[in-house]
Amino acid sequence: MRSILQIWDVARGSARVVLETDRHIEAPNWDPSGANLLVNGEGYLFRVDLAAPSLAMVDTGFADKCNNDHGISPDGSLIAISHHTARGSEIFTLPAGGGTPKAITEDAPSWWHGWSPDGKTLAYVAARGDRRVIDVYTIPVGGGAEVRLTNGEGHCDGPDYSPDGSCIYYNCDRDGHAQIWVMGPDGSGQRKLFADEYVNWFPHPSPDGQRLLYLAYPPGTLGHPPNLPVALCLCDMEGGNRVRLVEFNGGQGTINVPCWSPDSSAFAFVSYVI
Fold first, then answer.
1. CA distances from 191 to 42, 105, 182, 188 (A)
2. Is the peptide bond before 101 cis (omega within 30 degrees of 0)?
3. What is the CA radius of gyration of the chain?
4. Which domains does the chain have, with CATH numbers?
5. Burial grade of 50 (CB within 10 A; 0-12, 13-18, 19 or more)
6. In whole angstroms, what is the distance from residue 87 CA to residue 91 CA?
């Protein structure tokens, strides 16, 4: 499989290739500085300098089984990672420049997905109890008691904060296949933004609060598998004015985590060639 890291320019309506590699890379984050992207691959994290693109490994200490649920804090000082341990995926933070990870979640499995705009809270999904139900949780960035925001209404995933912190967008299949939902940061007011035939995952609000990016799978898709004909779509923050921007082979790893540029002019994604 060949991975193609790309940037979509919203104004131009087109993508440019940043990097192609025979390594399997996933889930680009855009650094708040705007100068580089962060991706994962083969259990590690890599920084891609946009001025001279290449895969530069980030020191993640003992965490050598990082999955595609990672992200950079709003102030650029920390990275949240989801690292597989003997108990399953657990969330850690480490300095943005690399270093020893600090455990945040006490229970597993847990998969990180979003930072609150003030940098104080992490949003993630986790399975607790019988481990068959995936729900949305939050936790202080330094660790502590987790707060459950959804309660087994279906498979919930991909929580990401609005730029003003007033709500959390996520996907859920509680009334059929996965669609885009929104709720307050405390779990209140849960509502579906829209309904269509596509299986919609991983909503990411733009930093300027004007657009919502999400990944659309073909009708009938179960979960969020790799290597399917998918589309990246934009809509407004209430789910209106939906547009399918580009179609390609992708899915798992394409935009699992926040991927907008700091100025909201572009977003990063990964497509794949088999």
1. 37, 27, 6, 9
2. no
3. 17
4. 2-273 (2.120.10.30)
5. middle
6. 12
CA distance 63 to 230: 31
Token code pair at residue 7: 């940037």
- What b/e readout covers 223-250, taking b as 16+ CB neighbours within 10 angstroms? ebebebebbbbbbebebeebeebbebbb
d(CA 137, CA 105) in angstroms, rounded, equals: 11
Whose tokens are 């855009």? That residue is 30
pLDDT by position in tens, the chain (length 274) = 899 999 999 999 999 999 999 999 999 999 999 999 999 999 999 999 999 999 999 999 999 999 999 999 999 999 999 999 999 999 999 999 999 999 999 999 999 999 999 999 999 999 998 767 899 999 999 999 999 999 988 999 999 999 999 999 999 999 999 999 999 999 999 999 999 999 999 999 999 999 999 999 999 999 999 999 999 999 999 999 999 999 999 999 999 999 999 999 999 999 999 9
Pairing assessment for the beta strands 44-49 and 56-57 based on DSSP bridges = antiparallel
| Residues 6+ positions from 125 with CB-CB distance below 8 Å | 110, 111, 113, 134, 135, 136, 137, 156, 157, 158, 159
Residue 269 DSSP class? E
- Long-range pairs for 7-15: beta carbons < 8 A, 24 or more residues apart: 7/261, 7/266, 7/267, 7/268, 8/232, 8/245, 8/246, 8/266, 8/267, 8/268, 8/269, 9/265, 9/266, 10/211, 10/234, 10/264, 10/265, 10/266, 10/267, 11/265, 13/245, 15/246, 15/269
